[in-house]
Amino acid sequence: MMSTQRLHSLDFFRGVSVLFLIPLHCMMMYASAETWNDSNLGFIMKWIERGSPSFMVAMGISFVFSKRQSFKALLIRGFKIVGIGYLLNTFKFIIPMLLGFFPENLIVAHGLNPEHLIDNSIHFLLLGDILQLAGVSLIIMSFCVPIFKNKYVILAVALSIVLSTRAVSGIRLGIGGVDYVLDLLWGNQYNVYFPVFPWMGFILLGRFVGELYKENKTNIPFFFQKVLLLSATTIVIGASLCYYNYDYHFGDYYHLGPGGMLLLLGVNTSFIYFSHFISKIILNTSLFQFLVYASKNVTIIYFLQWVVIDWGMGLFGFATMNQQGVLMIIPIYSFLVFAILTVFDKVFRNKSSLTESLATQ
Q1: Can you tell me whether residue 110 is helix, strand or coil?
Q2: Whether the Cβ atoms of residue 122 and residue 191 lie closer than 8 Å to each other
Q3: What distance in Å separates the CA atoms of residue 208 and residue 169, rounded to the nearest whole number?
Q4: Whole-number Å distance between alpha carbons of 39 and 27
Q5: What is residue 9's three-state secondary structure?
């Protein structure tokens, strides 16, 4: 019962999140500033972007049911995912740059000089995104195996990260490589989009919810009462803090304050409740099977869609399209990503440690 219930709701929760990746990232890379700010599609995508934490919550829930929870397993897995993150940067940024079809206006948007190839390559190679966050979080969790046996310790650490994020945000020591590591932990610049402080809070909260489920797997209604109470509490507190000082708590989405984190934690946690009931309704449909497929291949889909979208900028440019243009390429790119994934399944799956890592993380 535990395995079946978990997989149905979790696969729906994570699968739906995967389906929003391509539309969101197409919008981020191709839409002009006017399309982002003034179109109906831009309005919708800004709300979808706020759903990015669902990946992290789902990751935390999945972790609870993983057999790989020893110090060594977590440490190796963490470094592996970090490595995949930098491999992705190589494919999506460095290769197009070296081949000469990387948009110059994207380089300028990062405050760089298009003529400085080496500096630009280093900058884009080291950009921190969700995979770096996931890998570093697993590395940290590997050192916390003894104390994370208690779910309330997990919750306390998650809330500590959320509440202390502004206190540590942007701290540097003025030492090159050390500062980069500190940026991965709590940077406030756009060389790292998802620093551990505060974003690891989502992963740990998901893990807390997973532990709640394990304890209440024979009483699903009681489990969801706890989830809704947690969700409602964090939404009320987070929304109140954002109302009091929006700029401090929610002004910078990628470097949120405590209020913004609590608000999004509550909203994304509430999706677990709705995912459970919707998954029961569509359980025997082709749509649900497709969502399961997307859920099981979340990392490789994330990898492929970024490569396809970024390479496509060599043809369409960066930040040039109106609403109609973005709507036109979304289904095309979606088809390409899943077509490539289908070939990947048939030809390359299980033939190297890399492909296995991409498919199963």
Answers
A1: coil
A2: no
A3: 25
A4: 11
A5: helix
Going from the C-alpha of 227 to that of each of 71, 72, 223, 271, the distances in angstroms are 29, 31, 6, 10
Q: For the chain (length 361 residues), average pLDDT per consecutive 10?
A: 57 87 95 94 90 86 85 94 97 95 95 94 96 96 93 95 93 93 95 94 94 86 91 96 94 91 92 87 91 89 95 95 96 95 78 42 45
| Whole-prediction pTM | 0.90
Q: How far apart are CA 83 and CA 131, in angstroms?
A: 9
- For 324, other C-beta atoms within 10 Å of its C-beta total 10
Q: What is the pLDDT of residue 349?
A: 61
pLDDT of the residue at 220: 83
User: What's the CA gap between 71 and 208, in Å, rounded?
Assistant: 19
**How many Cβ atoms sit within 10 Å of the Cβ of residue 224?**
18
Sequence-distant (6+) residues with CB within 8 A of 117 are 97
In sequence order, which residues have a C-beta less than 8 Å from that of residue 6 and are 6 or more positions away? 61, 65, 213
C-alpha–C-alpha distance, residues 181 and 184, integer Å:
5
Contact present, 171 and 195 (Cβ < 8 Å): no
Distance CA 233, CA 13 (A): 21
